[in-house]
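Session log. Operator J.P. requested a structure for one protein chain; no other inputs attached. Running the standard single-chain path with token output.
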Amino acid sequence: LTVFRLPPYTPDLNPAEGVWAHLKKSLANLAACTTHQLAGKARTRLKKMQYRADLLDGFIAETGLNLTPP
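Structure written below.
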């Protein structure tokens, strides 16, 4: 496990911003009746993202950061 320190808030350099943008886009046309349904769908879609290494690598690549260990 290698930990990389990122600036406190720089959306362009934060891969998590890509994750949330992708999640929001995937939930855009959802008509959930309750907050519990919405939370369940969000959890399910985040879990599916967890197993898509190519997608997660894309979020990191989008930042333009070089993440090779020193």
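Operator note: The radius of gyration is 14 Å.
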